Amino acid sequence: MHISEGVLSGFVLASGAIFAIAGVAFGLKKTSYEKIPEVAVLTSAFFIASLIHIPIGPASIHLVLNGIAGILLGWSVFPAILVGLSLQALFFQFGGFTTLGVNTFNMAFPAIISFLVFKTMAKYHKKNILVIAGFICGMLGIAGGTFLVAVSLLTTGEAFLPVAKILIISHLPVMIIEGVITAMVIGFLQKVSPELLPGREV
Q1: How far apart are CA 85 and CA 94, in angstroms?
Q2: Quick one: which of 17, 64, 95, 176 could link to 101 by a disulfide (CB 3.0–4.6 Å)?
């Protein structure tokens, strides 16, 4: 879901940069020294998952893993995604540096929503609730990111409406795949390291 350079209007680029800077600043404030290794691991996972992508007009589809990253990192997901996107732009020219703020916000904000939804659902001590929450949050990460990318394009101009529609439709299977992957990871962590899951610290 990288948006390429030279596509968005100055207003959208500036707005994305402001929101991203605010999110990264708050995320860094919330990141303790002990959490840095976890942030690094999930940044690497995000970086690798996003490398294999299929171009669709000014954007692309690929695995993101922002749902699971948001669940495990909370607000620290903002700097994690910023670093991942920066490295992708630097080494592989995915997205770009002028769109870095917009791309960061489009992927990190849905991750925060996933974190909040998971934390809320985790309070209900029912069988398999965490796995179900993981599936929902995995889908939310992609659905939210796709929606924000579409809004970014449409805010720039109505000419991007066909691309926005294709982007949303093409990401429907990705939502399911990320939901399944996230559910599997949560199920595994629930058995081996439940203290890593928000709302279920031991």
Answers
A1: 8
A2: 17
